[in-house]
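[job 4471] stage=fold_predict status=RUNNING
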Amino acid sequence: LRKEEAEKKAKEAEEKRKRLEEAEKKRQAMMQKDKQSTGGSGKGGQKKADGGMSNVQDARREMTKTKEQLEEEKKISLSIRIKPLELDGMDSDSLKGKASELWDTIVRLETEKYDLEERQRRQD
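[job 4471] inference complete, writing structure tokens
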């Protein structure tokens, strides 16, 4: 009986993971399409045909989720976005190169974050 329950839970978790992966892919595709349609200027402002009611429904659905569900979705989303590092076959020089590459990425992202925060602060 426990084995059946465990199998059922594992199957449900796998299905949920697949659904979330699909949703994440759709979200990223929509973001990419939106960037292309707005020309990357960041000023969209396009109205949806349903008047934005789907956003309200999404928000309600999001609010009814438990902390465990949110944590699980967060883990799945991060596992999709963050690729694992392949460090096993690297020697010291390639590890140093990878470390400097990651550092450059961090610096770039922090700079973009700061710029966006400053722009937001100026607009407020």
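[job 4471] summary: Helices lie at 2-38, 53-63, 67-81, 92-123.
[job 4471] exit 0
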